[in-house]
Structures are given as C-alpha cells and as structure tokens.
Amino acid sequence: NLHAATLAQSYPFDEQTSAFAGDVIGDLSQFPKRLSPKYFYDAAGSELFEQITVLPEYYPTRTELGILRSRGDEIASIVPRGAALVEFGAGATTKVRLLLERCDFGGYVPVDISGDFLTAQAGGLRKDFPELGVYPVAADFTAPFALPAEIEGMPKVGFFPGSTLGNFEPHEARAFLRSAREILGEGAQMIIGVDLEKNERVLYDAYNDAAGVTARFNLNVLVRINRELGGNFDVSAFMHRSVYNRERHRIEMHLIAKKAQTVRILGRNFSFRPGESIHTESSYKYSLDRFTALARDSGWSVRESWTDHDRMFSVHALAA
Ligand code: AVJ
Fold first, then answer.
1. Partner of 4 at 20 to 30 A CA spacing, among 82, 106, 194, 275?
2. Whose CA is nearest to atom 5 of ligand 1?
3. What does pTM read for this prediction?
4. Could you report how far apart the first and last alpha carbons of the chain are, in Å?
C-alpha cells in the first residue's frame, strides 16, 4: 500500500516489515483506529494463542477437536482415495493429524504466510507420515496462489479449521470461499470449522478469560509494534476489552486507552483520547442457516454439517 512504499524508501525494512509498517500506519489513521488481527501472530503471540486454546473458558478448539474425532469416520468417508489435502493457514498439526490418520491422502499442502513455520511443521509430518507427500506453499491464502504440480491429478480437499473464517468480515469471507473454490477447482470438497452463535455470556467469557491470557495476547500487538517498528506505546496505558456486538453477530476485541496520550511510530504521531479504542479483531459467530447461505453464495453446497451435543461449534463438508 502507499504507506509501505513510502516507508520502504526511508527505512531499511524487509518486505514483511514494510507491509507491517504500512498496515499499522494506515489502520491507526482510521477512525475508529484499528489493527489487523494477522499481526497478533509473532512468536510471542503464537505462543499466547496456544495457551488460549486450552483455557477453560475458550471452548472452540476442544469442541472442534471433539467433532473431528467423533465424526472422523464420516468425514473420512467423503474424502476420495488419494486426494490432496490443502490446508489454508498451517496452525498446530493436531487437527490435520486427525484427518491424515483416518484418510489415505495422496498429498498434503499446508499454505501459510510464514515459510519458517511451514518448514518446521512439514518436518514433523514427514517423520510421522513417511509415505505422504508434503508440499508446503508459502503464500497469503486469502489471495489466489498456485497449487504444487505434484498434486496435479489428485482430487482436492480443502481444510479450514478453527473458525478462522470468523476473522473475516462477511464480504471477505465470501471472497475467500469463492477464491478457495477457484483454487481447488470443480468437484473439490472443503472441510471447514465454524463457531456458532450462542449464549452471550459464554461468548463474552471465551474472550475475557479470568487468567488474563487473552488480554496479554491482545496487548502483545503493541509490544510488536514497539519492537519491530520502533513505536513508543506505553503498553500499561492500554487495557484489553472484548465485547459481543449482537447486531453484527461478532465478538470485537479492543485495546482501550486508559488516558489521553500520543504515540509516535515511524515519525508519525497518533493521539488517543481517554477511553479511545483500537479495534484489534472481530470474531464472527454464525447460525447454521447463515453459514449455509454464505457457502451457497460462494459457489459451494453444504454436503454435511456436524455439531457437538451442545451445538457450540460446527464442522461442515462443502462440495464445489
Ligand atoms: C484463531 C481467529 C479463531 O477468533 O477465536 C482467540 C483468535 N482471539 N481469542 C478466534 C482468538 C481471541 C481465534 N481465531
């Protein structure tokens, strides 16, 4: 973007840091101020997120794993023999291993923006699944990318767990699903996890845990801006807040300025009024009907939907 190009001339940043700098300057210049949730995941943020996934209040991860385990054979029954599994965003391998153990895939293609993470993850899988072809692709999966030639003739199965779909605005979610359909092609399948709308107290608690891990996860993006962009955020002058926005069907995470202050980043001043917010993440919650409509609107049909007993979370098998 414009900021990134301008900054690249005056700072010795690599491409990723220039993009980070451009997005931060652009997003903090908006009203209300915001930051992209993709920047949560530096090493510290990724570690904090792993801690979030086992918090008592944070039900999504354990609930999705429970569905993948209990419905694993039904899910495996829709996967053609020798198919290529294309995972959008390569997180921890716990979930994909549940599929790899049940289905005889011809190949596995983890797609993630971080090449280092991919290399580490691929090594572990090659050791445990020596006969599986693992072909990592370092790319931003929200934009079209080329699939590896090695999986050319294989049937394609997309995998997008974790309700990461929920981080997208509705129009972005539709654009992603349409793009995934283009990439995977006619006749492809997609296994996708979607967090469901539910009791607002349960939603609130999942993003405001008693131990304060989510607060540290949220505040960490300010620490990253200070470290990587030379910003001078006083992190202790901001506080974490998650709210459920009922009409938008989404949890919103914010960082609230506790007092009036001015933050300097790359020669620019950003002033905050007391109580002013930086909107750092949205996490959309779907009803089964609204998700089915979104999938249809993106060129997919919902072939199967599975939920846990309490209908907290859902996994869907889509067909292109
Ligand atoms: C990884 C985006 C699915 O939205 O629940 C967890 C990230 N944010 N706690 C989510 C997150 C705060 C998580 N996703």
1. 275
2. 283
3. 0.94
4. 33
